[in-house]
Design brief:
By secondary structure, the chain is of the alpha/beta class. It contains eight helices and five strands.
């Protein structure tokens, strides 16, 4: 069995950037269930928030993403998995949770031009509002479908606040903390 690090956290906390940088530093493969989710939304002609709302009544959406996470466990490779709830399915993983101030998260998302699959945010207030709606939708779905509270920090091995840290600082810290 390979080593797996699951990185979860708030929207705009830097999960993707941290996960990619950590995977590169450790020589692990990078997997993003969020990108898989955004690709599904784009293929359906909707945005990520609309797919979240649809997933509340269509269990096949989550089943596809969950299956992808579970398949990683037995293939023997080392992974950094950027995902909201992969920690729940990959119980043997080292579980990291990233938190961020909501205003900083909104500013990050607003400035990220690569988020073309998500709704266009008119300003900081609308970005923060949409992120909070998406978080509520996800938390409701995860609670109903899996009986989990992804915001319960006791689910994780390590919790980091990324609000005032660079990606490099976070990765430096994680490289010391992650069991090898």
């Amino acid at each position: 069995m390979g080593r797996i690090i699951t990185v979860s956290g708030e929207l705009g906390s830097g999960k993707s950037m941290v996960s990619k940088a950590l995977a590169a530093r450790l020589g692990y493969q990078y997997v993003s269930t969020g990108q898989f989710h955004r690709d599904m939304a784009r293929e359906m002609g909707i945005d990520a928030l609309e797919l979240n709302i649809l997933a509340e009544s269509d269990p096949s959406i989550d089943r596809k993403i969950d299956a992808m996470s579970q398949e990683l466990v037995n293939d023997g490779n080392d992974y950094v998995v950027d995902s909201r709830i992969a920690w729940h399915f990959i119980t043997s993983s080292f579980k990291v949770y990233l938190v961020v101030d909501p205003d900083i998260a909104a500013a990050r998302v607003l400035a990220d031009k690569q988020r073309c699959e998500e709704p266009a945010y008119a300003d900081l207030v609308s970005a923060k509002t949409q992120l909070l709606k998406r978080k509520e939708s996800e938390n409701k779905r995860y609670s109903q479908k899996y009986g989990i509270d992804r915001n319960n920090v006791s689910n994780y091995d390590l919790v980091l606040d990324t609000s005032l840290q660079t990606v490099e600082q976070i990765v430096d810290f994680l490289c010391v903390q992650v069991p090898r």
